[in-house]
Amino acid sequence: MNTRRLSGVALEKALASRLRELLSDVAWLRGCEVSVNPAPFERAFDLLATIPLPTKNRVELWVECRDLPRPSQFPYVALRNDFASDGRRTTRVPVLAAPFISERIAELCQQHGWGWFDLAGNCRLNVPDGFFIERSGNVPTHSPPELKVNLGTRESARIVRALLVAQNAGRRWTQRELLQECQPGVSIGLVNKVVSFLRGQAFVMDHEEGGFRLSEPLGLLAAWRAVYRFDRHERRGYFTLKQGQQLKAALRSLESIAGGHAAYAAFTAAEFQTPHVRQPKTWLFVGAEWEDEFRGSVEAKPVDSGDNLVVLIPDDAGVFYLQEREAGRLACTNAVQTYVDLCHCGSRGEEAAEALLEQDLKPAWKAGGFKA
Question: Does residue 225 carry a pLDDT above 50?
Answer without folding.
Answer: yes
